[in-house]
Amino acid sequence: MARKIAAVFDTRREAEQVAGSLVNEGIEARDIRVADTATQREYEERSGRSGGGFWSWLFGGSDEEAWSSDVDYYNTGLGRGGAVLTVDADDDRTAARVQHLLEAHGGHVAGRGAAAGGERTASASAASAGARRAGDREEDTLPVVEEQLRVGKRAVTRGGVRIYTRVTERPVEQDVRLREERVNVERHAVDRPVTAGGDAFRERTIEVDETVEEPVVAKEARIIEEVVISKNVEERTAKVRDTVRRTDVEVDRGEGSRAQDGALERDFRTHCDQTFGREGLSYEQCAPAYRYGYTLGSDRQYAQGDWATAEPETRRRWEERNPGTWERFRSAIHYAWDRARGERRAA
Known about the structure:
347 residues, alpha+beta, two-stranded antiparallel ribbon, 9 helices, 7 strands, 37% helix
């Protein structure tokens, strides 16, 4: 029986890298398809159809019931810049292996495989909780939604300096010494004889020039100052504070379940006293860690993995809400995770 497995990834590049990993794992490349908003837009422009037509093409069938319950989930993933990766599996064993590989590479599996002919079982979408039947058990899935804070940067104009140049005139003066000539003509009374051979009665004209100095003005432009314009760049760390929302699930169990919870709490208290007693930690301080580990260990997402595989993601999610405390409570989380896995295997 052929099955189709779908998973949502944060970026197309990530989805294509996972597709390459699947090929390396022996999955046929022709059975793998990656789609994002560009793929959807190209399909709609080519076919003239929108909405369900694209998803029907992607999932290989025209039956809207096969994927309509998850379409909001897929559209949300694409709207955030993500991509959908689909894989056609020939049998149940291959489908389970593909699903495990997708989850191991960080994919958000949006649906379980179903029979050939385009038919597939829709998982609960991110927008609503839906009931489904697994084997002979009916299960209700409640999505746990958590917002993540992403802080970016952008350049804005806060102020600046505008510099102008203009030409002005101002009067100046400077002293200079000037030379001026004047011709003086004086007559002196004398009485002496004319020298022999002299031409006493020849007419003559004598010219004497008078000179005077006058100022000559010349201007020379010289650079007397420079104005240098530069910018100093400084970096600082800004603390951004905001609030994010998360769906918390509280379970109110019946009397039988409460008795089981009481036994579980006693087990956790004993482990806490033995492990953290010397550090002075009370069970009330450790209880959130035990609940966290037990909840994750009960999650079907980690049904196929071990602690070494689950620890990185488990640590990341714990540190987001309890920064810097992982090493302190790691053993409590691990113990509760193992306890939940043991009960799940026994069930």
